[in-house]
Specification:
Layout lengths: L6 H13 L2 H15 L9 H7 L22 H21 L1 H11 L2 H5 L3 H10 L3 E2 L8 E2 L8 H10 L6 H21 L10 H17 L5 H13 L7 H22 L25 H7 L23 H12 L2 H5 L2 H8 L3 H14 L1
């Protein structure tokens, strides 16, 4: 079992590593590394280790008026606060060394982590015409706003890259900016500053609003994604009315579709009337049609649920007729039973038979 780390000795050795002659510095660094290695530390950890243990403190000297903790303008307080922040960051670096090393390795250098991306440059350029420098003690504004993107700013940002039109795509772009922010925060020892450029920050915030409430959920999966996003934001985004609106709309669409699926046979397209010569003779000689005409629900438009519901994109008689014709124009479609075509499109086998005979005569 390794002996307890001798911090007094390490502090003296590190002083030579920082301030000694060239030869002394190299020897001291090797000695410091040998001291900390058995305890799971690396040479890069030594400054933070000593700082968190109080060896590198620069104790603030009280001002003439004495040390007043609540007086934020007191120089002694400012120095004490800065020293406390240094210790916090040092402790954070020690606890998250693996994260820091991973980020630096992925980008190649600390400078690369903080280098502005092509997207950041493009967004900053897009909003530049709306920039107005603030007066003394006031923040700069863009189209009169400091933090949120106005309609004009959104339009300008869209010239660099169009806004996502669905929740999953908006989530993907939002998470890209979150990841970039986190990487820079890790490289900065959890400094918690504004790590995105102004244009990217406007884009990031607007994406949050799109996900939270503005984009329309296309299905239940989108609603779940939106709700998870709101929960993960811990109160930053919490527009519950958007969730209710989505659910009510989707529920209404589902009920409407259910009614369509139980409404029975769809009449032929009025734009293509069937003449008396097109009416089949009770399906005789045609097994597919005979099965339908012999049904007790023949002509009853309120028969029980069909085996299949028509596809949601075939919501008019014209579209359904066009889909039947498209299928019958293929060699495979001409060989398919009338009932198979009818179930695929959401019409009756009789309707398919009529269209098929018309197409045969026309050909």
């Amino acid at each position: 079992m390794a002996k307890k780390l001798n911090l007094d000795l390490l502090n003296k050795v590190w002083a030579l590593a920082e301030q000694g002659t060239e030869g002394e510095r190299d020897a001291a660094r090797h000695r410091a590394e040998a001291l900390v290695k058995p305890h799971g530390y690396t040479l890069a950890d030594v400054p933070d280790l000593l700082l968190t243990e109080g060896y590198l403190d620069d104790e603030p000297a009280p001002s003439v008026g004495g040390f007043t903790f609540y007086d934020m303008s007191n120089p002694a307080h400012q120095r004490a606060y800065a020293e406390a922040e240094r210790k916090k960051q040092a402790a954070w670096r020690m606890a998250n060394r693996a994260k820091i090393d991973e980020v630096l390795a992925r980008y190649g250098s600390e400078e690369a982590v903080f280098a502005y991306t092509a997207e950041e440059k493009a967004y900053d350029a897009a909003i530049k015409p709306f920039h107005k420098k603030g007066k003394a003690g006031q923040c700069d504004t863009w189209d009169g706003e400091e933090f949120s993107a106005t309609a004009k700013l959104r339009a300008a940002l869209a010239t660099a890259k169009p806004w996502p039109d669905n929740i999953p795509d908006a989530i993907a772009e939002y998470e890209y900016w979150e990841k970039l922010y986190d990487d820079r925060n890790i490289a900065d020892s959890n400094g918690q500053w504004d790590y995105l450029t102004q244009g990217a920050d406007f884009r990031h915030r607007a994406l949050g609003d799109l996900i939270n409430k503005e984009l329309e959920a296309r299905n239940l999966s989108d609603v779940i994604v939106r709700l998870r996003f709101q929960e993960a934001s811990q109160g930053v985004y919490d527009d519950s009315t958007s969730i209710l609106r989505d659910l009510e709309r989707l529920n209404g669409a589902e009920n409407s579709q259910r009614l369509k699926s139980t409404s029975g046979d769809i009449p032929p397209d009025r734009g293509s009337p069937i003449t008396s010569g097109d009416v089949p003779d009770s399906g005789k000689g045609d097994p597919e049609n005979r099965a339908t005409s012999d049904s007790p629900y023949m002509g009853n438009k309120t028969r029980p649920n069909s085996a299949t519901s028509p596809p949601s994109n075939l919501d008019t008689a014209t579209k359904r007729r066009a889909e039947v014709e498209r299928i019958l124009e293929t060699a495979e479609g001409m060989r398919m039973p009338l009932r198979a075509v009818a179930q695929r499109v959401g019409v009756s086998p009789t309707t398919v038979g009529n269209i098929k005979r018309q197409m045969t005569r026309a050909g």
